C-alpha cells in the first residue's frame, strides 16, 4: 500500500490499465457450444436421485412388472443432452439443436456477467454465466411446463466450446 501511495498517479494508472486488460480478456460467450459430457452425467444423476424415489409405489410396481427401470425413464425424460449444441451469435442470436435434432431459435444477452437466453417457440428461458472457458446454464422453471420444470430443477447445463 505504501508503494502505491509513493507511485501516486502512475500507480493508479497502472492498476487501472491492469484491471481494464483483465476485463477485456474475459471470455466471450459468442461461439458454438456443446455439452460437457462427463459434467452432464453427474448433473443428470442428481435428477435421477431426486425423482426416482418420488415415483408412487403403485406406478413403481407397474414399471418393474413391465421390466422398466425408473432411473432409466428419468434419464430418457431429461433426454440425451450430450448431443445438444448451442450457437451464440455476436448479434445476440441464439440457436439450439437438441438431441432429437430439433432447432430452437432465440436471443441472448449479457449484463454484468449474467447471460440470459430466450427461445421464442416454447418461451423457454435460461440463465447462465461464464466460468473460465465454460458456459454454465440453468433453466428458468417458471417458463417450463410443470413436468419439465420438475425434471430440470436445480440442474446445471455445463457447456464447452465446440472443438
Q: What is the arithmetic mean of pLDDT?
A: 79
Count of all domains:
1
Low-confidence region ranges: 1-25
Largest sheet data? 8 strands, antiparallel, barrel
β-strand percent reads 25-35%
Could you give the count of β-strands?
8
Rg from Cα = 21 Å
Q: Looking at the structure, what is the overall shape? A: elongated
CATH class term: Mainly Beta
The SSE string, one letter per element, is: HHEHHHEEEEEEHE
Which strand order do you get reading across the main beta sheet? 1-2-3-4-5-6-7-8
CATH topology: Lipocalin
Q: State the helical fraction.
A: 25-40%
Q: In CATH terms, what is the architecture?
A: Beta Barrel
Number of helices: 6
Task: Give me the secondary-structure category.
Answer: alpha+beta
**Quaternary structure classification:** single chain
N/C terminus separation: 44 Å
What does this structure look like?
- The protein has 163 residues and is of the alpha+beta class.
- It has one domain: Lipocalin (Beta Barrel).
- It contains six helices and eight strands, in the order H-H-E-H-H-H-E-E-E-E-E-E-H-E.
- The protein has helices spanning 2-7, 9-24, 37-51, 57-65, 70-78, 146-152, and strands at residues 31-35, 85-88, 93-97, 103-111, 114-119, 124-131, 134-139, 157-161.
- The chain has an eight-stranded antiparallel beta barrel with strand order 1-2-3-4-5-6-7-8.
- The longest helix has 16 residues, at 9-24.
Short description:
The protein has 163 residues and is an alpha+beta fold.
Explain the layout of strands and helices.
Blueprint: H1 2-7, H2 9-24, E1 31-35, H3 37-51, H4 57-65, H5 70-78, E2 85-88, E3 93-97, E4 103-111, E5 114-119, E6 124-131, E7 134-139, H6 146-152, E8 157-161
Antiparallel strand pairs: 1-2, 1-8, 2-3, 3-4, 4-5, 5-6, 6-7, 7-8
Helix pairs in contact: 3-5
